[in-house]
Specification:
The protein has a three-stranded antiparallel β-sheet. Strands 4-5-6 form a three-stranded antiparallel β-sheet. The longest helix has 26 residues. α9 packs across α18, α10 runs antiparallel to α11 and α10 crosses α18. β5 and β6 form a beta hairpin. With about 425 residues, the chain is mainly alpha-helical. It has 18 helices and six strands. The radius of gyration is 23 Å and the shape is globular. The N and C termini lie far apart (about 55 Å). The structure holds s-citryldethia Coenzyme A.
Length: about 425
């Protein structure tokens, strides 16, 4: 971090405190408050971290006002159209686009880590068949720390790299097997002659009884969805991974914590919630009713797939996702899918409504992804597992960056205490 040349002055009860400021390569300056409590005996207060930078990072930059998303400086729309997921994984992990030799070596490494320890199948079989695949993913990924002991020492750089590769490589197998288990079909093993997205589609949709040919257009669309979800700076699940990792916990346990956080409907669970909302709306003529509910402060209903803490403009991922939805549904001959029509009309009507314009609420990455995934044959319960699969590279990249940071220390926020002050115990007879 560049030495601070600017400072902010805070005055409390006539006493002034100079706080150093740091300037980024892009985005807002930050006020360094690390010494504030020691100097002034006060905490800052920011539930939800609306104005707080929790770390410094070089991986992903978001300009919410412009609707810009950069991974190591490269715009997401360029990566989505010109790159592919494993190349983006390399970029996120190592900071630069790979040479052809580096990419081949990385893809070979990932391909050779896609199988699971055979005994892990017992974990899947311990769940009820109707278990949500996210429940299975949280459990199985956490259990990886009981199977891959040789990559749990976070202080060993080589073990950190092996754990990163194992997680990126095995998540598609875990997600696909969670799906197969839920529909009572046998697990399909990964194949080393298939690319990452094709392997995942085959593990999900092939059956032992016949050959399965992956549709290259669908695997390209799948790969693009992986890329669009790969990383997103300090979102809730990434912050969960960072906080869990700050205690020195092993990477598998920390990624399991990230999966658990992503599951929520306000975060990665929104893709499932959005499609369920579009199905509940059902027809275009019911859209005004739901927009009215979303605006009604007395009604907890929100438009799923709309709004974002950072984007106050279009989420650039949603723009690419919408184009992909048109392509995939046309390819599948379902371009007149009524749910897609409801989604497009809902977007049009919401964006024309002053409430959404004033609050700068736009479609986010989750608004169109579910429409594509359902058209590809996935049940809504698989939407968030696919998000988790895609985001694993972001979680491990941010985790590696944090562990390697010499400033890294355990995260331990304080609080504004509003509870009882000290009082004496009362015996039960006197209560
Ligand atoms: C993801 O952080 C990331 O980067 C996340 C993510 C990633 O890649 O990791 O981008 C992935 O999680 C995308 C977001 C998916 N979630 C949803 O689509 C769920 C629906 N959206 C919201 O619940 C909401 O917009 C959030 C959670 C996404 C953001 O919430 P904030 O930033 O805390 O904003 P807020 O709740 O304070 O809302 C501000 C105002 C409120 O009105 P007022 O109290 O000011 O009058 O906007 C309203 C809200 O009521 N509002 C909505 C709304 N979202 C916000 N009103 C109707 N519908 C909505 N969707």
């Amino acid at each position: 971090m560049a030495e601070s040349t600017k400072s902010a002055t805070l005055t409390i009860d006539g006493q002034s405190y100079d706080l150093p400021m740091h300037s980024p390569t892009a985005g807002p300056d930050v006020i360094d408050i690390r010494k504030l409590y020691g100097q002034a005996g006060v905490f800052t207060y920011d539930p939800g971290y609306t104005s707080t930078a929790s770390c410094d990072s070089t991986i992903t930059f978001i300009d919410g006002g412009k609707g810009e998303l950069l991974h190591r400086g490269y715009p997401i729309d360029q990566l989505a159209s010109k790159s592919h997921y494993l190349e983006v994984c390399y970029l996120l992990l190592y900071g630069e686009l790979p040479t052809a030799a580096q990419l081949e070596d990385f893809e070979t490494t990932i391909t050779r880590h896609t199988m699971l320890h055979e005994q892990m199948q017992n974990f899947f079989r311990g769940f009820r068949r109707d278990a949500h695949p996210m429940a299975i993913m949280v459990g199985v990924v956490g259990a990886m720390s009981a199977f891959y002991h040789d990559s749990t020492d976070v202080n060993d750089e080589r073990q950190r790299e092996i754990a990163s590769h194992r997680l990126i490589a095995k998540m598609p197998t875990i997600a696909a097997w969670a799906y197969k288990y839920s529909i009572g079909q046998p697990f399909i093993y990964p194949r080393n002659d298939l690319d990452y997205a094709s392997n995942f589609l085959r593990m999900c949709f092939a059956v032992p009884a016949e050959d399965y040919e992956v549709n290259p257009i669908l695997s390209r669309a799948m790969d693009r969805i992986f890329t669009l979800h790969a990383d997103h700076e300090q979102n809730a699940s990434t912050s969960t991974v960072r906080l869990a990792s700050s205690s020195g916990a092993n990477p598998f346990a920390c990624i399991a914590a990230g999966i658990a956080c992503l599951w929520g409907p306000a975060h990665g669970g929104a893709n499932q919630a959005c499609l369920e909302m579009l199905k509940e709306i059902g027809t275009v003529d019911r859209i005004p009713e739901f927009i009215a509910r979303a605006k009604d402060k007395e009604d907890p209903f929100r438009l799923m797939g709309f709004g974002h803490r950072v984007y106050k403009n279009f989420d650039p991922r949603a723009t690419v996702m919408k184009q992909s939805a048109d392509e995939v549904l046309e390819l599948l001959g379902v371009e007149n899918n009524p749910i897609l029509q409801v989604g497009k009309e809902l977007e049009t009507q919401a964006l024309a409504d002053p409430y959404f314009a004033e609050k700068k609420l736009f479609p986010n990455v989750d608004f169109y992804s579910g429409i594509i995934l359902e058209a590809m044959g996935f049940p809504t319960s698989m939407f968030t597992p696919i998000f988790a699969l895609s985001r694993t590279v972001g979680w491990v990249s941010q985790w590696k960056e944090m562990i390697a940071d010499p400033q890294n220390k355990i995260g331990r926020p304080r609080q504004l205490y509003l509870g009882q002050t000290e009082r004496d115990y009362m015996n039960i007879e006197t209560r």
